[in-house]
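TASK: fixed-backbone design
INPUT:
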């Protein structure tokens, strides 16, 4: 059984957690992961307009740690969409993502079915999961 719930947290960061309960597992055993997929940071609007190499108003992806360290994005998305966009090979499985938008959140979808809300002016790096889709929302809370 899989359950999804969107929860808000500190500094406006929200997350849609996927809870999986494994059927057929030994009595009392279940697989549940509630950890965020990486490190999260939220900054005031003015700081991310030019920082991390991601110009306003975009959601930028950094394919490798070397790209992130150099603040050299490999793919960027800026259109608000009604559904998910499949990421290009230059964004798929990225090490980091930055949302330089001031008012719009971005839903990141992962290959394990998890969803993460990348709030306005926030970033996620050292991502443990494989990001495969994005949906930029016309809402800061996704």
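OUTPUT:
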């Amino acid at each position: 059984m899989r359950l999804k719930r969107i929860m808000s947290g500190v500094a406006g960061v929200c997350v849609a957690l996927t809870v999986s309960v494994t059927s057929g597992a030994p009595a009392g055993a279940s697989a549940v992961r509630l950890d965020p997929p990486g490190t999260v940071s939220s900054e005031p609007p003015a700081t991310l307009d030019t920082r991390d190499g991601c110009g306003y108003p975009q959601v930028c992806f950094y394919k490798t740690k070397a790209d992130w360290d150099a603040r050299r994005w490999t793919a960027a998305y800026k259109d608000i969409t009604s559904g998910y966009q499949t990421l290009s090979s230059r964004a798929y499985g990225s090490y980091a993502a930055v949302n330089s938008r001031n008012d719009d959140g971005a839903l990141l979808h992962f290959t394990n079915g998890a969803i993460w809300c990348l709030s306005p002016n926030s970033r996620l790096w050292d991502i443990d999961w494989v990001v495969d889709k994005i949906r930029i929302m016309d809402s800061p809370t996704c």
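COMMENT: DSSP finds two helices and eleven strands in the chain.
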